[in-house]
Amino acid sequence: MNRFAIFAAPLLALTLAGCSSTGTNQVAQAPVVITAPVMATPLVASPAQTTQQALATTNVANGFIDSGALALMTATDSAEANSAQFYALQFGRPGAPRAWTGSKGTTGSVAVGPYVRVNNLDCRDFTHTVKVGAQEFVKKGTACREQNGNWAVEKSAA
């Protein structure tokens, strides 16, 4: 038996199965091929997507900065403080402050402690210092990374 006959026989049978007729007035229907939909986005977020989402949801107004300083800060100041707070908590070395500069001379820095595991969450102590004009505001606390990657203040002190 030649190679063509080995492969052609099942192919011919499959082709003929879709072309059978059932009578003189009936039309045979060809087999239907159904394809699976193509997913445009992955089902599980990549680490970069998770980091960007957590960065976007870290909000210094939620206990990371003294409320007196927050009242004097502009939107640009808050955005810079948010970024510094997130990156200090996420990637910062213990004791190495991460500085930020806002608008009109507003500055700040965030220092973090080592990671501590609490109730199956990664937590870190932080100190966020903000200078607005001649005034300095300091906020200390503990933040924990939730399951979705967001950082939330668990405990704060003035």
Give a written overview of the molecule.
- The chain has 158 residues and is an alpha+beta fold.
- The chain has a domain at 54-157.
- It has helices spanning 3-17, 47-57, 67-72, 75-91; strands at 98-101, 107-112, 116-118, 121-132, 135-145, 151-157.
- Strands 1, 2, 3, 4, 5 and 6 form a six-stranded antiparallel beta sheet that branches.
Tell me the total number of β-strands: 6
Taking all Cα atoms into account, the compactness measure Rg is: 31 Å
Q: Which stretches are poorly predicted, pLDDT < 50 over at least 5 residues?
A: 7-16
Share in β-strands = 25-35%
Averaged pLDDT:
78
Our count of helices gives: 4
SSE arrangement, N to C: HHHHEEEEEE
Distance between the termini: 89 Å
Architecture blueprint of SSEs:
Blueprint: H1 3-17, H2 47-57, H3 67-72, H4 75-91, E1 98-101, E2 107-112, E3 116-118, E4 121-132, E5 135-145, E6 151-157
Antiparallel strand pairs: 1-2, 2-4, 3-4, 4-5, 5-6
Features:
single chain; 158 residues; alpha+beta; six-stranded antiparallel β-sheet; 31% helix; elongated
Quick summary of this structure?
The chain is of the alpha+beta class.
